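Changelog-adjacent note: as of this version, every example in the card shows the full chain rather than a window. The one below runs 341 residues end to end.
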Amino acid sequence: MRREANIEDWRVFCAIAKTGSIHAAADLLGSVDSLVSRTLTGLEKSLGCQLINRDKRPFSLTASGEIAQLHGQRLVEEYDHLVEELQSAPHQLAGPLRVGIPPGVLDGFLIEHLANFHRDYPDIELSVVDWHSPMPISFDSPNGRLDIVSAYGPDPASPEIVQIQYGTGLVLPCASPLYLARHHYPQSPDDVRDLTGIVFYSPLRPMISSLQRNGVKKTLPWGRRMIFYSAQTAKATTVVGSGINPGIPTLHCARELKNGSLVPVMPGWTSDPLKLYLYMRPESLRLRRVRVFARWYCQVMQEIHNKMDNDLSPILEKFFAGTDFDFHQPSMKMPLLLNTD
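Full-length structure tokens:
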């Protein structure tokens, strides 16, 4: 067999590329230096090109080595995932499960719920990573191939993956009373020409540049802007009175709205509600543990959103008064493909 057809040879090369030395790679793999060195030499000879520059410490990759690392790492991960899935009994509630969740949702709302999930399903080895990658949806992460990703959707560029909308999230323009006391309360987007916009940009959802009310859409003509790439930082900057935030999800500003550190502005003017989606690889969906977690996640998030909207009902009713917008969003039914039997 040619060396490049041996997955373990690629595993050795990737370990060397990652660690920068034969000895460190041997430690990582639980092998010995001489075997690791022979494997690398044999792989390079079989490929007919040099992958590693050995004249400096730590080792560096050649141009061919950079290409080999990119594809070789994916090859090793795909192989490991293939074996893992084939060896997993599809109907057992046991085995590894890798999930990507936006950090604001993960840190702010799901820690206790995830602990409860682990208590109820202790044999499912749950691995959760912060997820904030752009469309199209990719299941690749530094921590391995993911089974489930939570994001905003849909993703029309990826019709081959499973896409489930489990709810919607309201988004409100907000400001701090501190800022409004120094400036003025805007009634519509036309009133922000002399105000500062606290604008949040994320690969998960587009920057808000306009608002709409009763079918009328208007651009936000900010006098000045501050742009942030962290939702938490953008909200914190708004709370301390630095400007108007054109759209904070109610999920992330409910506490501030209730305690009065933020108030809605531009009544009735809002951006489209966020469509909350869960994405899964079709091959992962055959596993019962994946379906169980997906169903659990959708139910938990629906409950969180419903409670939040109910708590904010007096504020939302006042904000949307005189508009044709119904903020009472019905819970969505679980699709049959999430049947856990």
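Structural remarks: DSSP finds eleven helices and 14 strands in the chain.
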